[in-house]
Write a structure and sequence with these properties.
By secondary structure, this protein is α+β, with helices and mostly antiparallel strands. It has four helices and six strands; from the N terminus they run βββααββααβ. Helix 2 crosses helix 3. Pfam families: OsmC.
Length: 141
Amino acid sequence: MNRKANAVWQGNGKEGKGQLTTQSGVLSSNPYGFNTRFETEPGTNPEELIAAAHAGCFTMALAFQLQGAGFTADELRTEAVVSLEKDGNGFTITASALTLTAKIPGIDQQKFDELAGIAEKNCPVSKVLNAKISLKATLQG
């Protein structure tokens, strides 16, 4: 299976502008640039997209772990915060912090922690990131 996206850039690094488009069309010429990455101009940026990918991948991986153990979540809500830090003349993604809030009928805390940990370590996005990954998981009610 392959998925693709395209980037188009015009201009230099700081004043230039780009657009991102995904195969599915969910992004279609979405703007990105220095101002959307390092300031607050509307648009997207690579770190935001990695955060979305990590949150989505982990959450789906946990849903499959739960299914395999005989549980179905009422709700899994995950936030991923990706950290970009200055590294010499460039930048490095140093961390992705996952925060999960889950409503899962019939599961105990130990089994929940076990399955969340497996999902965190084994989702494909976790495997590809060369960064510190952390997970704070809360089981509600």
